[in-house]
Amino acid sequence: MLGEIEFDPWQCVAELIDNSFDDFTEIIRSGDPWAGGFKVSVTLPSPAVRSSEAQVVITDTGRGMSYETLERAVSAGWSSNDRFDKLGLFGMGFNVATARLGRRTRVLTTRPGDPEWIGVEIDLDRIGDDFEADDITEPKADPNEHGTKIEISRLHGERADWLRRNAPGLRNTLGRAYAWLLDNRPFELWVQGQRVKPRRHCRWGEDRYVTYGSGARAERISAYTKIDQKYEDAEACQDCGNWQVPGLGKCGQCQSERLTPRERRIHGWLGVQRHLDKREFGIDFLRNGRKILQWDKRLFEWQDPNDPTGAVDTEYPIELANQGGRLIGEIHLDHVPVTYQKNAFEYSSGSWRGAVEYLRGAGPLQPEKAKRVGYQENDSPLGQLYKAYRRNAAGARCLIPGDGKGPIHEETRRWAQRFHAGDPEYQSDQRWWDAVINHEEQNKRSKLESAQQGTSTVPNEEAVLEALGVGTASDNSSPADSDDPPTAAAQPNKAEEGTKGRKETFQERIDRYRLDSVTVPDLSRDFGLPKLGFLSVETRRMSATRVQDADDQPTPVLLVQEQGGKATAFVDPAHAVFNKLGAEASDLLLMEVAAALKVKAASGLSHSELVAELRAECLPDTALDSDRIAAEARELLVVVREKMAASVDEDPERAFQFLSPDELTATENEMIALGLVTHTEKLGSTSEFIQHAPSLFLVKLLEAWPEAFMDAKVFNGAYSTVSSPSARRISLATTVGYLNDVATVASFTTKNPLRLQRTRLSIRLLADELAEGA
Predict the structure, then answer these.
(1) How far apart are CA 475 and CA 760, in angstroms?
(2) Residue 420 above 70 pLDDT?
């Protein structure tokens, strides 16, 4: 019957590992010197061994047991474990785990100095009504040997097959479950002869932060928050696990007098992952060092406590949810009870509810929603991270790596894979940070180049148009017509000569280029295809020097191949193909890489086909996926709607009057379907309707009432703050154009590549237009 209790194969193995780790922990707490280390080894059935001879074997280098302790340890219903300090929480754990895996279990154990291994064989096919099992012994090769060995045989076919096939998967699962212990204790865990590596979080460093808000309200919010919240000690019942206030004498639940004072503490950290992931984000919750919940997302949900049957709102992620999330954490709750399978906490317990309220607060995470339902701004640890990092716009404002045009989510996910593979170049967050800085520098460069195009004769209009990146009406000149000398970045360079007048070598030139350039993180990667091979390319952008090839001819991209399948690509941002013809550095780099790989592999494919395949394989972020772009548009509009609704909170009726009859009907239907309203007579009494109105209504509302949303209220564009009518018109038209593109693709499907390109750009530009704190 014990074998019918639902435990996955990995849980059975983990249950036995728990007992070994408990023993190791006791040794460390005792402070006694210990020879032999702290090692647990798991041997799985081999595909080459017949099922009748297959075994699962778990051995450890612990203290071993006396005969009396062994007798109690294998007795169903008995446990020597402290239910609060140990991983092995339940007395039935050993019996459930072994019976679930196989019909026969042999346990052998020995202590330092014992003359032999002693043990017991539990054969479920031979055991009688007295439940007596056979004693066994084995000779001992060395009197200093110590530890315990569990051998499980006559395995159940389905579970044996799973274990045969899944040694790598089991290592990964155990590496996640025991990551904290393997990282913070001298414990070793081996599966099938390979050491289990802890699965660490790929998070931003403790020194990274963003500035949220502006002016006097600006605050620095770190990407890593340490958690250490202590509560008043309580008494815990050793028999039933009940917690209660001290001094009552007996357990209020089972009347036991076995009460022990215990510490109640929430500790660990909350932080921000270096990449977005569709599944691997959320909070890990641990008990006594083992993860009970992994990537748990309960803290991102909120339900109105005054409406327990109401809908549960998912508050994160809401922007670009199709890309996933990046808020993560590792929280220890040693005082919170867990279920017998150790895959959930007792969610009805007061200690769990108290931990949730401390970590995420009582009210909604979304500031505008909190205001609408009567809560103060959520200043909980998770609330702080949420408001600073919920958006995914590229750059330093949100701590998102980019390429000067937008975020590079696919590439940062590849970097995370290198991090988990142990690549030393990806362990720190420096590569991610370089991509953030690279994005900011490219943005500044484009704005500076736009500002240098000419000057305006109208001061108010000039400031607006310069911010918009367009020329003024009076600006009819161009750099080609100017008498001013070209900037340093545009000046061609001559090959430097040595002290004896000799011309520099090509290698000296490359060395000089390297000194006057910076890495472009998003274009530094492995380029190639399985049928052609790969080239590991470091791409570097020149700062002031112009690039010339080996024949002294100007070139926008110079690819220099090196030994070992490596290459360096130098990009000249001052070349006319970029700043006049609008080409992308990635396009020309792919052409150079395609040519190199074509020659190397003697491929008969055309250059254009090679470039197309390389782009699809190596630069997936550039793909025109209509579903993905539409999802990005809809999710960006969630943020826009919230901010626009907040901006008209004081006069929602004015915004309501701009709804046409068909827009009003659509809004009512949407809110009724979501259970937000049951009658619509007072729909315009609050601004909530804006969050459910048709997307194109937002465009009409912005055009009809720009004073409510421009001037950094929702969008950064200047309007009321400038006096020039033409500047106002251009500023508003620019923002309206972006919003119209985004709202249109969110409402109507299009497969037109040009339309998709324009919309993708508008999504990025509109995200940049959102005011700080939006």
Answers:
(1) 29
(2) yes
